[in-house]
Amino acid sequence: MRRWNGWGEEDVVYPLPKEALGFLVAELGESAPAPSVPAEGIPVPFPRLPDHPGVAYDPKARLVRARGQSFADLAALRFGEVHSVPDGVAFPVCSSDIAELLEWARGADAQVIPYGGGTSVTGGVNPVENGKPVLTLSLERMQALLELDQKSHLASFEAGVQGPWLEAQLRANGFTLGHFPQSFAYSSLGGWVVTHSSGQESLGYGRIADMFQGGRMITPAGRLDLPPHPASAAGAELKHVVLGSEGCFGVLTEAVVRVRPLPEEQTFVGALLPGFEAGLEAARELIQARVPLCMLRLSDAFETRVSFLLANLGRFGGLANRALRFRMPKGEQRCLLLYGAAGRRSDVAKVLQEAAAVVRTHKGIGLGRVPGKSWQKSRFRLPYLRNALWEVGYGVDTLETATAYSKLLPTYRAVMKAMQGALATDNGRVYAMAHLSHGYETGASLYFTFFFRLADGFEETIACWRTIKHASIQAILGQKATLTHHHGVGADHLSYMTEEKGEAGLSLLRSLKATLDPTGMLNPGKLIAR
Ligand SMILES: Cc1cc2nc3c(=O)[nH]c(=O)nc-3n(C[C@H](O)[C@H](O)[C@H](O)COP(=O)(O)OP(=O)(O)OC[C@H]3O[C@@H](n4cnc5c(N)ncnc54)[C@H](O)[C@@H]3O)c2cc1C
User: Fold this and answer.
1) Last residue of a domain, one of 349, 378, 407
2) 286 found inside a domain
3) Residue 319 forms part of a structural domain
4) What pLDDT is attached to residue 316?
Protein backbone atom coordinates (compact mmCIF):
# COMPACT_ATOMS: atom_id res chain seq x y z
CA MET A 1 0.00 0.00 0.00
CA ARG A 2 1.17 3.52 -0.82
CA ARG A 3 2.50 5.53 2.13
CA TRP A 4 0.11 8.37 3.00
CA ASN A 5 2.72 10.66 4.56
CA GLY A 6 5.86 10.17 2.53
CA TRP A 7 7.30 8.52 -0.53
CA GLY A 8 6.63 5.01 -1.76
CA GLU A 9 5.20 1.73 -0.55
CA GLU A 10 4.67 1.27 3.17
CA ASP A 11 6.63 -1.98 3.31
CA VAL A 12 9.67 -0.62 1.46
CA VAL A 13 12.38 1.13 3.42
CA TYR A 14 15.65 2.45 2.12
CA PRO A 15 17.75 3.01 5.23
CA LEU A 16 20.37 5.72 5.22
CA PRO A 17 23.83 4.06 5.07
CA LYS A 18 25.85 4.62 8.27
CA GLU A 19 28.59 6.51 6.39
CA ALA A 20 26.00 8.84 4.87
CA LEU A 21 24.53 9.65 8.30
CA GLY A 22 28.04 10.31 9.65
CA PHE A 23 28.66 12.60 6.70
CA LEU A 24 25.47 14.60 7.39
CA VAL A 25 26.29 14.94 11.07
CA ALA A 26 29.75 16.23 10.14
CA GLU A 27 28.39 18.66 7.55
CA LEU A 28 25.21 19.90 9.29
CA GLY A 29 25.54 18.99 12.96
CA GLU A 30 23.64 16.45 15.10
CA SER A 31 19.88 16.37 14.72
CA ALA A 32 17.04 14.85 16.70
CA PRO A 33 14.47 12.39 15.29
CA ALA A 34 11.46 14.26 13.84
CA PRO A 35 7.77 13.58 14.60
CA SER A 36 5.36 11.49 12.53
CA VAL A 37 1.78 12.17 13.60
CA PRO A 38 -0.59 9.24 12.82
CA ALA A 39 -3.37 9.87 10.28
CA GLU A 40 -5.99 9.59 13.05
CA GLY A 41 -4.28 12.51 14.82
CA ILE A 42 -5.05 14.92 11.96
CA PRO A 43 -8.51 16.55 12.14
CA VAL A 44 -10.44 16.41 8.85
CA PRO A 45 -13.35 18.88 8.82
CA PHE A 46 -16.92 17.96 7.91
CA PRO A 47 -17.30 18.08 4.06
CA ARG A 48 -18.93 21.21 2.62
CA LEU A 49 -20.10 19.53 -0.62
CA PRO A 50 -23.63 18.23 -1.30
CA ASP A 51 -24.12 14.47 -1.87
CA HIS A 52 -23.12 12.92 -5.19
CA PRO A 53 -23.05 9.15 -5.77
CA GLY A 54 -19.61 9.33 -7.45
CA VAL A 55 -17.91 11.31 -4.69
CA ALA A 56 -16.13 9.82 -1.65
CA TYR A 57 -16.42 11.86 1.55
CA ASP A 58 -14.57 9.67 4.04
CA PRO A 59 -11.73 11.42 5.89
CA LYS A 60 -8.96 8.97 4.83
CA ALA A 61 -9.72 9.25 1.08
CA ARG A 62 -9.63 13.05 1.44
CA LEU A 63 -6.55 13.23 3.65
CA VAL A 64 -4.35 11.06 1.42
CA ARG A 65 -5.08 13.36 -1.53
CA ALA A 66 -4.67 16.61 0.38
CA ARG A 67 -0.97 17.06 -0.36
CA GLY A 68 1.59 16.25 -3.04
CA GLN A 69 5.22 15.31 -2.48
CA SER A 70 7.08 18.57 -1.89
CA PHE A 71 9.18 19.02 1.24
CA ALA A 72 6.51 21.37 2.60
CA ASP A 73 3.89 18.66 2.00
CA LEU A 74 5.96 16.05 3.82
CA ALA A 75 6.51 18.43 6.74
CA ALA A 76 2.78 19.28 6.94
CA LEU A 77 1.78 15.60 6.98
CA ARG A 78 4.48 14.50 9.44
CA PHE A 79 3.89 17.38 11.88
CA GLY A 80 0.10 16.94 11.46
CA GLU A 81 -0.32 20.52 10.21
CA VAL A 82 -2.72 19.88 7.33
CA HIS A 83 -5.09 22.85 7.32
CA SER A 84 -6.82 22.37 3.97
CA VAL A 85 -8.28 19.07 2.83
CA PRO A 86 -10.57 18.34 -0.16
CA ASP A 87 -14.25 18.11 0.79
CA GLY A 88 -14.71 15.15 -1.51
CA VAL A 89 -12.84 12.97 -4.00
CA ALA A 90 -14.35 11.73 -7.27
CA PHE A 91 -13.06 8.80 -9.30
CA PRO A 92 -14.38 9.31 -12.87
CA VAL A 93 -13.95 6.53 -15.42
CA CYS A 94 -14.42 8.46 -18.68
CA SER A 95 -14.47 11.94 -20.25
CA SER A 96 -18.24 12.27 -19.94
CA ASP A 97 -18.04 11.53 -16.17
CA ILE A 98 -15.57 14.40 -15.94
CA ALA A 99 -17.78 16.78 -17.94
CA GLU A 100 -20.72 15.86 -15.67
CA LEU A 101 -18.65 16.32 -12.48
CA LEU A 102 -17.43 19.75 -13.64
CA GLU A 103 -21.02 20.79 -14.29
CA TRP A 104 -22.08 19.49 -10.85
CA ALA A 105 -19.16 21.27 -9.16
CA ARG A 106 -20.12 24.51 -10.89
CA GLY A 107 -23.64 24.12 -9.48
CA ALA A 108 -22.19 23.56 -6.01
CA ASP A 109 -19.89 26.60 -6.43
CA ALA A 110 -16.94 24.34 -5.73
CA GLN A 111 -13.32 24.47 -6.86
CA VAL A 112 -11.97 21.41 -8.67
CA ILE A 113 -8.44 20.03 -8.46
CA PRO A 114 -7.42 17.50 -11.14
CA TYR A 115 -5.26 14.82 -9.53
CA GLY A 116 -3.01 12.37 -11.41
CA GLY A 117 -0.42 10.59 -9.28
CA GLY A 118 -0.18 13.30 -6.63
CA THR A 119 3.61 13.63 -7.04
CA SER A 120 3.62 17.39 -7.57
CA VAL A 121 6.54 19.06 -5.82
CA THR A 122 5.14 22.59 -6.16
CA GLY A 123 1.87 22.36 -4.20
CA GLY A 124 -0.01 21.64 -7.46
CA VAL A 125 -2.67 19.38 -5.92
CA ASN A 126 -3.06 21.13 -2.55
CA PRO A 127 -6.37 22.88 -1.87
CA VAL A 128 -5.90 26.63 -1.54
CA GLU A 129 -8.52 27.99 0.83
CA ASN A 130 -10.78 30.54 -0.90
CA GLY A 131 -13.99 29.93 1.02
CA LYS A 132 -15.32 27.43 -1.56
CA PRO A 133 -15.65 23.67 -1.11
CA VAL A 134 -13.01 21.56 -2.89
CA LEU A 135 -13.61 18.58 -5.16
CA THR A 136 -10.49 16.59 -6.02
CA LEU A 137 -10.88 14.74 -9.31
CA SER A 138 -8.63 11.69 -9.21
CA LEU A 139 -7.95 10.05 -12.58
CA GLU A 140 -6.62 6.82 -11.05
CA ARG A 141 -9.40 4.72 -12.62
CA MET A 142 -8.56 5.99 -16.12
CA GLN A 143 -5.48 3.93 -17.04
CA ALA A 144 -6.35 2.14 -20.29
CA LEU A 145 -4.45 1.96 -23.56
CA LEU A 146 -7.15 3.05 -26.02
CA GLU A 147 -5.33 2.53 -29.30
CA LEU A 148 -1.89 1.59 -30.52
CA ASP A 149 -1.14 2.58 -34.12
CA GLN A 150 2.02 0.51 -34.60
CA LYS A 151 2.61 1.80 -38.10
CA SER A 152 2.61 5.45 -37.02
CA HIS A 153 4.22 4.85 -33.60
CA LEU A 154 1.26 6.52 -31.88
CA ALA A 155 -0.38 5.34 -28.66
CA SER A 156 -3.54 6.79 -27.18
CA PHE A 157 -4.04 6.42 -23.42
CA GLU A 158 -6.50 7.52 -20.78
CA ALA A 159 -4.66 10.33 -19.03
CA GLY A 160 -4.66 8.83 -15.52
CA VAL A 161 -2.33 5.99 -16.55
CA GLN A 162 0.70 5.81 -14.25
CA GLY A 163 4.27 5.08 -15.34
CA PRO A 164 4.63 1.33 -14.70
CA TRP A 165 1.24 0.38 -16.19
CA LEU A 166 1.75 2.64 -19.23
CA GLU A 167 5.11 0.99 -19.94
CA ALA A 168 3.75 -2.52 -19.29
CA GLN A 169 0.96 -2.00 -21.83
CA LEU A 170 3.43 -0.70 -24.43
CA ARG A 171 6.12 -3.29 -23.72
CA ALA A 172 3.61 -6.09 -24.27
CA ASN A 173 3.48 -4.78 -27.85
CA GLY A 174 7.23 -4.22 -28.26
CA PHE A 175 7.16 -0.44 -27.66
CA THR A 176 8.25 2.06 -25.04
CA LEU A 177 7.41 5.71 -24.38
CA GLY A 178 10.89 6.30 -22.96
CA HIS A 179 9.64 8.76 -20.34
CA PHE A 180 11.17 7.95 -16.96
CA PRO A 181 10.90 10.74 -14.40
CA GLN A 182 12.21 9.73 -10.97
CA SER A 183 8.57 9.76 -9.82
CA PHE A 184 7.76 7.12 -12.50
CA ALA A 185 6.19 4.68 -9.99
CA TYR A 186 3.19 6.96 -9.35
CA SER A 187 3.11 9.96 -11.68
CA SER A 188 0.60 9.89 -14.52
CA LEU A 189 0.64 10.67 -18.23
CA GLY A 190 -1.82 13.55 -17.72
CA GLY A 191 0.31 14.97 -14.91
CA TRP A 192 3.45 14.71 -17.07
CA VAL A 193 1.85 16.59 -19.95
CA VAL A 194 0.36 19.43 -17.94
CA THR A 195 3.54 20.00 -15.90
CA HIS A 196 5.98 19.88 -18.85
CA SER A 197 7.73 16.87 -17.35
CA SER A 198 11.17 15.62 -18.37
CA GLY A 199 12.35 12.05 -17.87
CA GLN A 200 15.84 10.80 -17.07
CA GLU A 201 16.35 9.66 -20.67
CA SER A 202 15.18 12.90 -22.24
CA LEU A 203 18.40 13.20 -24.24
CA GLY A 204 17.36 10.20 -26.35
CA TYR A 205 13.58 10.24 -26.15
CA GLY A 206 12.88 13.96 -25.69
CA ARG A 207 10.74 15.68 -23.07
CA ILE A 208 7.05 14.92 -22.69
CA ALA A 209 6.39 17.97 -24.91
CA ASP A 210 8.17 16.12 -27.75
CA MET A 211 6.11 12.98 -27.13
CA PHE A 212 2.69 14.58 -26.67
CA GLN A 213 0.92 14.54 -30.03
CA GLY A 214 -2.67 15.37 -29.13
CA GLY A 215 -5.60 14.31 -27.01
CA ARG A 216 -8.71 15.56 -25.31
CA MET A 217 -9.16 18.19 -22.62
CA ILE A 218 -12.49 18.78 -20.92
CA THR A 219 -12.76 22.41 -19.89
CA PRO A 220 -15.62 24.20 -18.10
CA ALA A 221 -16.20 25.99 -21.44
CA GLY A 222 -16.40 22.75 -23.47
CA ARG A 223 -14.30 20.02 -25.02
CA LEU A 224 -10.96 20.68 -26.70
CA ASP A 225 -9.95 17.92 -29.15
CA LEU A 226 -6.41 17.92 -30.48
CA PRO A 227 -5.86 15.50 -33.37
CA PRO A 228 -2.32 14.03 -33.52
CA HIS A 229 -1.20 15.67 -36.78
CA PRO A 230 2.52 15.08 -37.36
CA ALA A 231 2.76 18.83 -38.08
CA SER A 232 0.37 21.63 -38.97
CA ALA A 233 0.52 25.25 -40.12
CA ALA A 234 -3.10 25.99 -39.18
CA GLY A 235 -2.41 28.87 -36.84
CA ALA A 236 -1.01 28.71 -33.28
CA GLU A 237 -0.29 25.19 -31.98
CA LEU A 238 -3.00 24.43 -29.40
CA LYS A 239 -1.05 21.59 -27.80
CA HIS A 240 0.87 24.37 -26.08
CA VAL A 241 -2.30 25.43 -24.29
CA VAL A 242 -2.40 22.00 -22.66
CA LEU A 243 1.35 21.62 -21.98
CA GLY A 244 2.09 23.41 -18.71
CA SER A 245 -1.59 24.13 -17.96
CA GLU A 246 -1.32 22.47 -14.49
CA GLY A 247 -5.01 21.66 -14.15
CA CYS A 248 -5.97 25.33 -14.44
CA PHE A 249 -7.48 25.30 -17.96
CA GLY A 250 -9.15 21.90 -18.10
CA VAL A 251 -8.82 18.20 -17.33
CA LEU A 252 -6.75 16.21 -19.80
CA THR A 253 -8.69 12.97 -20.19
CA GLU A 254 -6.86 11.32 -23.11
CA ALA A 255 -3.38 11.79 -24.51
CA VAL A 256 -1.84 10.54 -27.74
CA VAL A 257 1.90 10.03 -27.48
CA ARG A 258 4.71 9.13 -29.83
CA VAL A 259 6.19 5.75 -28.91
CA ARG A 260 9.35 3.96 -30.04
CA PRO A 261 10.23 0.29 -30.58
CA LEU A 262 11.85 -1.22 -27.49
CA PRO A 263 15.62 -1.02 -27.75
CA GLU A 264 17.51 -4.31 -28.04
CA GLU A 265 20.01 -3.10 -25.48
CA GLN A 266 20.48 -0.26 -23.06
CA THR A 267 23.83 0.35 -21.34
CA PHE A 268 24.89 3.02 -18.87
CA VAL A 269 28.50 3.77 -17.97
CA GLY A 270 30.40 6.20 -15.75
CA ALA A 271 33.45 8.43 -16.02
CA LEU A 272 35.20 10.93 -13.77
CA LEU A 273 35.98 14.43 -14.94
CA PRO A 274 38.53 16.71 -13.25
CA GLY A 275 36.09 19.43 -12.14
CA PHE A 276 32.59 20.63 -12.97
CA GLU A 277 33.79 23.11 -15.57
CA ALA A 278 35.63 20.40 -17.53
CA GLY A 279 32.57 18.19 -17.16
CA LEU A 280 30.27 20.89 -18.51
CA GLU A 281 32.46 21.28 -21.56
CA ALA A 282 32.48 17.51 -22.14
CA ALA A 283 28.70 17.37 -21.78
CA ARG A 284 28.20 20.29 -24.14
CA GLU A 285 30.45 18.72 -26.77
CA LEU A 286 28.68 15.35 -26.52
CA ILE A 287 25.27 17.00 -26.90
CA GLN A 288 26.13 19.53 -29.59
CA ALA A 289 28.04 16.91 -31.61
CA ARG A 290 24.83 14.86 -31.45
CA VAL A 291 26.48 11.70 -30.13
CA PRO A 292 23.26 9.66 -29.94
CA LEU A 293 23.18 9.02 -26.20
CA CYS A 294 19.87 8.36 -24.42
CA MET A 295 20.98 9.75 -21.05
CA LEU A 296 23.63 12.06 -19.69
CA ARG A 297 24.06 13.31 -16.16
CA LEU A 298 27.03 15.21 -14.77
CA SER A 299 27.28 15.59 -10.98
CA ASP A 300 29.31 18.35 -9.37
CA ALA A 301 31.98 17.40 -6.84
CA PHE A 302 29.52 17.72 -3.91
CA GLU A 303 27.00 15.36 -5.50
CA THR A 304 29.78 12.99 -6.60
CA ARG A 305 30.85 12.58 -2.95
CA VAL A 306 27.28 11.82 -1.88
CA SER A 307 26.68 9.45 -4.82
CA PHE A 308 29.75 7.40 -3.89
CA LEU A 309 28.66 7.35 -0.23
CA LEU A 310 25.18 6.12 -1.14
CA ALA A 311 26.20 3.76 -3.93
CA ASN A 312 28.02 1.40 -1.61
CA LEU A 313 30.41 0.43 -4.39
CA GLY A 314 32.43 -1.74 -2.00
CA ARG A 315 35.63 -3.16 -3.45
CA PHE A 316 35.13 -1.34 -6.74
CA GLY A 317 35.07 2.03 -4.96
CA GLY A 318 38.34 1.29 -3.15
CA LEU A 319 40.12 0.08 -6.29
CA ALA A 320 38.88 2.99 -8.38
CA ASN A 321 40.02 5.45 -5.74
CA ARG A 322 43.50 3.97 -5.55
CA ALA A 323 43.89 3.93 -9.33
CA LEU A 324 42.60 7.48 -9.64
CA ARG A 325 44.90 8.92 -6.98
CA PHE A 326 47.69 8.95 -9.56
CA ARG A 327 45.70 9.86 -12.64
CA MET A 328 43.49 12.58 -11.09
CA PRO A 329 45.24 14.00 -8.03
CA LYS A 330 42.68 16.67 -7.09
CA GLY A 331 40.34 14.13 -5.52
CA GLU A 332 37.94 16.70 -4.09
CA GLN A 333 37.10 18.06 -7.56
CA ARG A 334 36.18 14.75 -9.16
CA CYS A 335 32.86 14.92 -10.94
CA LEU A 336 30.90 11.86 -11.92
CA LEU A 337 29.55 11.71 -15.47
CA LEU A 338 26.98 9.03 -16.21
CA TYR A 339 25.82 8.38 -19.73
CA GLY A 340 24.02 5.69 -21.62
CA ALA A 341 22.98 4.51 -25.04
CA ALA A 342 20.00 2.49 -26.22
CA GLY A 343 19.29 0.75 -29.50
CA ARG A 344 20.72 -2.15 -31.50
CA ARG A 345 23.49 -4.01 -29.63
CA SER A 346 26.16 -3.18 -32.22
CA ASP A 347 25.14 0.52 -32.30
CA VAL A 348 25.18 0.86 -28.51
CA ALA A 349 28.82 -0.27 -28.34
CA LYS A 350 29.81 2.18 -31.09
CA VAL A 351 27.99 5.11 -29.49
CA LEU A 352 29.61 4.45 -26.11
CA GLN A 353 33.05 4.32 -27.75
CA GLU A 354 32.40 7.61 -29.53
CA ALA A 355 31.31 9.22 -26.26
CA ALA A 356 34.31 7.82 -24.37
CA ALA A 357 36.64 9.41 -26.95
CA VAL A 358 35.05 12.83 -26.31
CA VAL A 359 35.29 12.32 -22.53
CA ARG A 360 39.00 11.51 -22.83
CA THR A 361 39.70 14.77 -24.69
CA HIS A 362 38.39 16.55 -21.57
CA LYS A 363 40.77 14.55 -19.34
CA GLY A 364 38.00 12.23 -18.21
CA ILE A 365 38.70 8.72 -16.97
CA GLY A 366 36.27 5.93 -17.84
CA LEU A 367 34.90 3.88 -14.91
CA GLY A 368 33.06 1.30 -16.99
CA ARG A 369 29.65 -0.16 -16.27
CA VAL A 370 29.69 -0.45 -12.45
CA PRO A 371 28.54 3.15 -11.74
CA GLY A 372 25.97 2.87 -14.53
CA LYS A 373 24.54 -0.31 -13.04
CA SER A 374 24.49 1.21 -9.59
CA TRP A 375 22.57 4.23 -10.94
CA GLN A 376 20.09 1.93 -12.71
CA LYS A 377 19.51 0.01 -9.49
CA SER A 378 18.82 3.09 -7.41
CA ARG A 379 17.25 5.46 -9.96
CA PHE A 380 13.69 5.00 -8.66
CA ARG A 381 14.66 4.03 -5.09
CA LEU A 382 16.44 7.22 -4.08
CA PRO A 383 13.22 9.13 -3.19
CA TYR A 384 12.76 6.68 -0.29
CA LEU A 385 15.70 8.45 1.34
CA ARG A 386 13.41 11.42 1.93
CA ASN A 387 11.55 9.33 4.53
CA ALA A 388 14.76 7.99 6.05
CA LEU A 389 16.29 11.47 6.32
CA TRP A 390 13.16 12.88 7.95
CA GLU A 391 13.22 10.13 10.52
CA VAL A 392 16.74 11.10 11.65
CA GLY A 393 15.95 14.82 11.65
CA TYR A 394 17.17 16.12 8.27
CA GLY A 395 15.27 17.72 5.40
CA VAL A 396 16.06 17.40 1.72
CA ASP A 397 14.55 19.18 -1.25
CA THR A 398 15.40 19.95 -4.86
CA LEU A 399 14.89 22.72 -7.37
CA GLU A 400 15.88 23.08 -10.97
CA THR A 401 16.36 25.52 -13.80
CA ALA A 402 17.65 25.65 -17.39
CA THR A 403 19.80 28.13 -19.19
CA ALA A 404 22.10 28.58 -22.19
CA TYR A 405 25.52 26.89 -22.12
CA SER A 406 27.24 30.28 -21.87
CA LYS A 407 25.32 30.96 -18.62
CA LEU A 408 25.49 27.50 -17.01
CA LEU A 409 28.59 28.01 -14.92
CA PRO A 410 27.67 31.49 -13.55
CA THR A 411 24.16 30.23 -12.78
CA TYR A 412 25.54 27.15 -11.04
CA ARG A 413 27.90 29.28 -8.94
CA ALA A 414 25.27 31.86 -8.04
CA VAL A 415 22.70 29.27 -6.94
CA MET A 416 25.21 27.20 -4.96
CA LYS A 417 26.41 30.35 -3.15
CA ALA A 418 22.84 31.41 -2.36
CA MET A 419 21.90 27.94 -1.12
CA GLN A 420 25.00 27.40 0.98
CA GLY A 421 24.69 30.82 2.62
CA ALA A 422 20.90 30.96 2.99
CA LEU A 423 20.79 30.05 6.70
CA ALA A 424 24.08 31.67 7.68
CA THR A 425 22.46 34.43 9.73
CA ASP A 426 20.71 31.81 11.92
CA ASN A 427 23.87 29.73 12.29
CA GLY A 428 22.22 27.08 10.14
CA ARG A 429 24.17 25.08 7.61
CA VAL A 430 23.07 23.80 4.22
CA TYR A 431 24.73 21.07 2.18
CA ALA A 432 24.09 21.85 -1.48
CA MET A 433 24.91 19.81 -4.57
CA ALA A 434 23.93 19.83 -8.22
CA HIS A 435 23.95 18.02 -11.52
CA LEU A 436 23.47 18.82 -15.16
CA SER A 437 20.82 16.78 -16.94
CA HIS A 438 18.37 17.23 -19.83
CA GLY A 439 20.72 18.66 -22.43
CA TYR A 440 19.69 20.55 -25.56
CA GLU A 441 21.59 22.03 -28.44
CA THR A 442 21.66 25.49 -26.85
CA GLY A 443 21.75 24.78 -23.13
CA ALA A 444 20.82 22.41 -20.33
CA SER A 445 19.05 22.00 -17.06
CA LEU A 446 20.77 22.33 -13.67
CA TYR A 447 19.22 20.35 -10.82
CA PHE A 448 20.06 21.34 -7.24
CA THR A 449 19.57 19.31 -4.06
CA PHE A 450 19.88 20.77 -0.57
CA PHE A 451 20.04 19.18 2.87
CA PHE A 452 19.44 20.97 6.15
CA ARG A 453 18.70 20.18 9.78
CA LEU A 454 15.01 20.19 10.71
CA ALA A 455 14.05 22.83 13.26
CA ASP A 456 12.02 22.12 16.41
CA GLY A 457 8.53 22.83 15.09
CA PHE A 458 6.59 22.96 11.82
CA GLU A 459 6.66 26.76 11.39
CA GLU A 460 10.39 26.98 12.10
CA THR A 461 11.19 24.09 9.75
CA ILE A 462 9.11 25.60 6.94
CA ALA A 463 10.75 28.98 7.53
CA CYS A 464 14.22 27.41 7.00
CA TRP A 465 13.07 25.61 3.86
CA ARG A 466 11.43 28.75 2.48
CA THR A 467 14.53 30.85 3.15
CA ILE A 468 16.76 28.42 1.23
CA LYS A 469 14.30 28.07 -1.63
CA HIS A 470 13.68 31.80 -1.95
CA ALA A 471 17.40 32.67 -1.92
CA SER A 472 18.04 30.01 -4.60
CA ILE A 473 15.19 31.15 -6.83
CA GLN A 474 16.30 34.77 -6.54
CA ALA A 475 19.75 33.64 -7.69
CA ILE A 476 18.21 31.73 -10.62
CA LEU A 477 16.11 34.68 -11.71
CA GLY A 478 19.04 37.05 -11.14
CA GLN A 479 20.92 35.05 -13.77
CA LYS A 480 17.91 35.25 -16.13
CA ALA A 481 17.59 31.47 -16.06
CA THR A 482 14.12 29.90 -15.98
CA LEU A 483 12.15 29.54 -12.75
CA THR A 484 11.68 25.85 -13.47
CA HIS A 485 12.74 23.38 -16.13
CA HIS A 486 10.31 20.57 -15.27
CA HIS A 487 8.77 20.84 -11.80
CA GLY A 488 6.29 23.50 -12.86
CA VAL A 489 4.76 26.43 -11.00
CA GLY A 490 1.94 25.15 -8.77
CA ALA A 491 1.27 27.29 -5.70
CA ASP A 492 4.87 27.41 -4.51
CA HIS A 493 6.30 29.31 -7.50
CA LEU A 494 3.28 31.48 -8.22
CA SER A 495 4.78 34.66 -6.77
CA TYR A 496 7.76 34.48 -9.16
CA MET A 497 5.68 34.28 -12.33
CA THR A 498 5.66 38.02 -13.09
CA GLU A 499 9.44 38.00 -13.22
CA GLU A 500 9.40 34.86 -15.37
CA LYS A 501 6.72 35.80 -17.90
CA GLY A 502 6.41 39.59 -17.70
CA GLU A 503 3.07 41.46 -17.45
CA ALA A 504 2.12 40.86 -21.11
CA GLY A 505 2.86 37.15 -20.86
CA LEU A 506 0.86 36.79 -17.66
CA SER A 507 -2.08 38.68 -19.08
CA LEU A 508 -2.10 36.30 -22.08
CA LEU A 509 -2.22 33.33 -19.69
CA ARG A 510 -5.01 35.03 -17.70
CA SER A 511 -7.10 35.51 -20.84
CA LEU A 512 -6.68 31.83 -21.76
CA LYS A 513 -7.86 30.94 -18.27
CA ALA A 514 -10.82 33.32 -18.54
CA THR A 515 -11.86 31.74 -21.86
CA LEU A 516 -11.55 28.11 -20.84
CA ASP A 517 -12.51 28.44 -17.17
CA PRO A 518 -14.65 31.61 -16.94
CA THR A 519 -15.65 31.16 -13.28
CA GLY A 520 -12.12 30.26 -12.16
CA MET A 521 -13.23 26.94 -10.65
CA LEU A 522 -10.20 24.91 -11.77
CA ASN A 523 -7.23 24.65 -9.41
CA PRO A 524 -7.33 28.24 -8.09
CA GLY A 525 -4.15 29.63 -6.53
CA LYS A 526 -1.88 27.73 -8.93
CA LEU A 527 0.11 28.78 -12.02
CA ILE A 528 -1.40 32.27 -12.39
CA ALA A 529 -2.83 34.64 -9.84
CA ARG A 530 -6.26 36.01 -10.79
C1 LIG B 1 10.53 11.93 -5.88
C2 LIG B 1 10.08 12.75 -7.04
C3 LIG B 1 10.82 12.73 -8.22
C4 LIG B 1 10.40 13.49 -9.31
N5 LIG B 1 11.12 13.41 -10.47
C6 LIG B 1 10.70 14.10 -11.57
C7 LIG B 1 11.42 13.99 -12.80
O8 LIG B 1 12.39 13.26 -12.91
N9 LIG B 1 10.94 14.70 -13.85
C10 LIG B 1 9.83 15.48 -13.76
O11 LIG B 1 9.42 16.07 -14.76
N12 LIG B 1 9.16 15.62 -12.60
C13 LIG B 1 9.55 14.95 -11.51
N14 LIG B 1 8.87 15.06 -10.33
C15 LIG B 1 7.70 15.96 -10.25
C16 LIG B 1 6.36 15.27 -10.60
O17 LIG B 1 6.48 13.88 -10.55
C18 LIG B 1 5.92 15.72 -11.97
O19 LIG B 1 5.53 17.08 -11.90
C20 LIG B 1 4.78 14.90 -12.57
O21 LIG B 1 4.64 15.27 -13.91
C22 LIG B 1 3.46 15.05 -11.85
O23 LIG B 1 2.59 14.03 -12.31
P24 LIG B 1 1.36 13.54 -11.42
O25 LIG B 1 0.56 12.62 -12.24
O26 LIG B 1 1.85 13.02 -10.13
O27 LIG B 1 0.58 14.90 -11.24
P28 LIG B 1 -0.12 15.47 -9.94
O29 LIG B 1 0.89 15.66 -8.87
O30 LIG B 1 -1.30 14.67 -9.61
O31 LIG B 1 -0.58 16.89 -10.49
C32 LIG B 1 0.36 17.85 -10.89
C33 LIG B 1 -0.41 19.02 -11.53
O34 LIG B 1 -1.05 18.58 -12.71
C35 LIG B 1 -2.47 18.69 -12.61
N36 LIG B 1 -3.02 17.48 -13.25
C37 LIG B 1 -2.70 16.19 -13.01
N38 LIG B 1 -3.35 15.39 -13.86
C39 LIG B 1 -4.07 16.18 -14.68
C40 LIG B 1 -4.94 15.95 -15.77
N41 LIG B 1 -5.18 14.73 -16.23
N42 LIG B 1 -5.53 17.02 -16.36
C43 LIG B 1 -5.29 18.27 -15.93
N44 LIG B 1 -4.48 18.55 -14.90
C45 LIG B 1 -3.87 17.52 -14.28
C46 LIG B 1 -2.76 18.82 -11.14
O47 LIG B 1 -3.93 19.56 -10.91
C48 LIG B 1 -1.51 19.55 -10.66
O49 LIG B 1 -1.63 20.93 -10.90
C50 LIG B 1 9.25 14.30 -9.21
C51 LIG B 1 8.52 14.31 -8.03
C52 LIG B 1 8.92 13.56 -6.95
C53 LIG B 1 8.12 13.57 -5.70
Assistant:
1) 378
2) yes
3) yes
4) 58
- pLDDT tier for residue 311 given thresholds of 50, 70 and 90: confident
Compute the CA torsion angle 103, 108, 109, 111 (nearest 10 deg): -70
**Domain hosting residue 284, numbered range:** 265-378
Report the DSSP pairing between strands 295-299 and 430-439: antiparallel
Single out the residue of 437, 419, 417 nearest to residue 428, CA to CA.
Answer: 419
Number of domains in the chain: 2
- As a whole number of angstroms, the distance between CA 375 and CA 230 comes to 35
CATH number at residue 279: 3.30.70.3450
d(C-alpha 521, C-alpha 424), whole Å: 42
From 115, 375, 526, the mutation candidate for ligand 1 (largest count of ligand atoms within 8 A of CB) is 115
- Angle among Cα 428, 430, 434 to the nearest 5 degrees reads 170
Nearest to 304 by CA among 268, 325, 277, 333: 333
Give the binding-site residues of ligand 1, using a 6 Å CB cut-off: 7, 68-69, 113-121, 124-125, 139, 159, 181-183, 187-188, 190-192, 194-195, 197-198, 246-247, 251-252, 383, 486-488, 523, 526
- Per the DSSP assignment, residues forming a β-bridge with 400 are 447
Maximum distance among all Cα pairs of the chain, rounded to whole angstroms: 73
Residue 238, in any domain of the structure: no
pLDDT tens-place string over residues 190-203:
999 999 999 999 99
End residue of a domain, out of 346, 363, 378: 378
Q: Which among 259, 65, 62, 250 has a CA at the least distance from the CA of 176?
A: 259
Q: Is residue 177 part of a domain?
A: no
Residue 329, pLDDT above cutoff 60: no
Q: Which domain CATH number covers 49? A: 3.30.43.10
Burial class (CB in 10 A: 0-12, 13-18, 19+), 370: middle
The string of pLDDT tens digits covering residues 244-295 is: 999 999 999 999 999 999 999 999 999 999 999 999 999 999 999 999 999 9
Distance between CA atoms of 281 and 284, rounded to whole angstroms? Answer: 5
Give per-residue pLDDT as tens, 108-144: 999 999 999 999 999 999 999 999 999 999 999 999 9
Does the pLDDT of residue 380 top 70, yes or no?
Answer: yes
Give 117 Cα–ligand 1 centroid separation in angstroms: 7
Q: How confident is the model at residue 94 (pLDDT cuts 50, 70, 90)?
A: very high
